[in-house]
Protein 1
Amino acid sequence: MDNSSGVGVLDKAALVLSALESGPATLAGLVGATGLARPTAHRLAVALEHHRMVARDIQGRFILGPRLGELAAAAGEDRLLASAGPVLTHLRDVTGESAQLYRRQGDMRICVAAAERLSGLRDTVPVGSTLPMKAGSAAQILMAWEEPERLHRGLQGARFTATALSGVRRRGWAQSVGEREPGVASVSAPVRGPSNRVVAAVSVSGPIERLTRHPGRMHAQAIVDAAARLSEALRRTTG
């Protein structure tokens, strides 16, 4: 079968990525595996590294980069959303509060699914809402397990600290009280994809009057259980 798409540079980049599928490669190894000229192989590998599709291991060899995992996780979003409805509804019923699912997109987070409280005072976050990554328990979750460089950048101007995120990683959940919006508290936990990478945050939110100033004491276990169910659903559908 002819693997040529007619777009030469893309075909060559695909050759480089395919060559790295079997493991780390030196530049000489890439040249041997792809049949590309040495300067071409080097130029493409470095360009792909710029876009995080290629990275280097501790010995300086080329390896597949983190961006590929992020794209694969995004491709799994429909599976995540298919599982989210029943899990969020159960979480809302157990806690009595609105439940949301957030994914990171650049410097923002997006509510991709929600189950609203049926009556009384609500903290409504409509599906499709875009919120900052600088405040709130879901932002803490989506930031806490980031690569060190992105973590350092993300903490600039944030309402939470590196020490707080260290606590989040240790506990496995996050809480916020009036951090994103006055009078609102929330608790969140990480949803992990098959590679154990954090791909989303599941949350409950509501008025401080109901959730108190220590919302994790009330709802952390329910949140962690919901996150575990969503993580298991992703493992099941991709296995």
Protein 2
Amino acid sequence: MTSTNAVHVLGIGGSLREGSQSERALRIALGGAAEAGVTTELIPGPELVLPFYDTALAERHERAVRLVEAIRRADGIIVVSPGYHGALSGLVKNALDYVEDLRDDDRPYLDGRAVGLAAVAFGWQAAVTTLDQLRTITHALRGWATPLGGSINSAETKFDEAGGASDEKSVRTLRLIGSQVAEFALSRAGHQ
């Protein structure tokens, strides 16, 4: 739990292309969290350009320090990855590898945090397999994957700059994922 009374949800993801479909999906999910009464923060794909994670190196790039500190402060996390060739992007995977830097914290890794997950890919197969991989990684990092995850086929659903999408069901799903993360974090805050 953060040191202040504010409950904070961090969004991580997207692609290198600013305003990508996966980044727009992440923004919708963060909107759902904010509507549930938490503060939110976004670290989009272009800010996730980091050196490959290496446990042997103590020195960290300034972006890596920002990412790790943001995860450390977060009471909940939302991760959205594009699906590339049936898997999550290397950009998002490398960012999640930096969670290892939290191994010695009082709250190691993603312990005690809800993690909302969604995958956006041009086709159902990559969207579903990417979501499955995100769930596996979340469990390995001791996070609580929300009951609802999102697999979004960008061949059928297009996100717009105004914060919506051509498929209202996808928008509702993403908002619910954000809401589930926020509600879990708020619940834990009330029981601390």
Protein 3
Amino acid sequence: MTNTFPRISISTERLVLRPLDEDDVPALTEMMNDELVTAWTSVPQPFTEEGARRWIAEDVPRRRARGAGLDLAVTEFLTQRLVGTVRLTNTDWHVRSTELSYIVAPWARGEGYASEAALATAQWLFRDQRLERIELRTAADNTAAQQVAQKIGCISEGVLRNACIARTRTEDGGLAEARTDFIVWSLLPEDLEGVTEQLAEAGGFTSFSDWN
């Protein structure tokens, strides 16, 4: 029988991570059309509300049902406003590993939401799902994403040369692609020891302008 992630909600001091739903469509569409999201992800462009609905209603539950991964909305605890997403992909239930990525809306950057959401997800994966390895891949020029990985305790393992395609907007409004490297990071259960305390001593999650 295929292992699958449960439908869950994860709460932190400032955030609630929960399944995406229909009400997220407008905010999700706006976030996914941001220039930095376009640059560093493979999100289809333009990202339409129809595409958002199809993703939430069909793609997300299908991937979870077959055990491939999980998508969570990241919302502010007080306002319930969508601040980003966390995605788990390439899950291997035999190896007990998964790949984690995150996106933060433009208006919410600089608040440390990516690191807070990623750390909460990692703690849940290691504690409740008994995973043994989480992998992150960040584009070589995406320093903000690299800072988030470092902040939650990830260890840099090496470089996948020429494995990432970044996108830039052209003068006529189109997209141009350029190849770059992926930096591979890993997080093991023991890497989280002391991370929460270190973050508290450093003033919490607000040190970096994380966005993706």
Protein 4
Amino acid sequence: MDSLVQLAADPTAWAALATLVVMEVVLGIDNLIFISIITNKLPAEQQSRARRIGIGLALILRLALLGTVAYIVHLTQPVFEIFGKGLSWRDMILIAGGLFLLWKATKEIHHSLDPDPEEKAGGGASLGFTAAIGQILLLDLVFSIDSIITAVGMTEHVPIMVIAVVTAVTVMLVAADPLSRFIAANPTVVMLALGFLIMIGMTLIAEGFGAHVPKGYVYTAMAFSAGVEVLNILGRRARKGKRKAA
């Protein structure tokens, strides 16, 4: 308890907490986009519950991994080499997660451009609840390990990590339904979000092979693309309003 009081009185700890919260929220955007796209393929009555379960699993995984911080740190140690490049368990997890994102995003883009006959006829959901949760859990694991390793690199105080993780996941929980509704109401945003997933997947693979990609570049590109899409949406609404007025 004394150590917690001392930590609370330390301005450096508060600065680290603020920085880590921002970092965790930004890293959570990737996870939230994937969860939104996956759950929007479920029946309407299951979507919100699936999002809550997916985000809840993300919180459980992150807190569980925080309890094994000493082990997580060792995931960055090379375990074998390929063409002279040492790969750690973290690298392999990032590569596997990146490949999964590339496969999933490419598959969803294909279905958007050329829907299955059954989907054209019925327009129903094309993904089961259990399958959706399984896919969300898989990506939760990848993003959780990346998140915890980022947290360990920024502070050595576990209470700060816990507060940052809980805060970030709470923000994800609050933003999940509005983001999913926005994506569902704007079909072009779905394609943009799938493009984001491809970019994130490529970034994970690059990170896994040791090519560091500054996150600022990635999120700046995403923000710019999202800004352009917002202008397109506003333009379409303005033209639609003029047609109605005419």
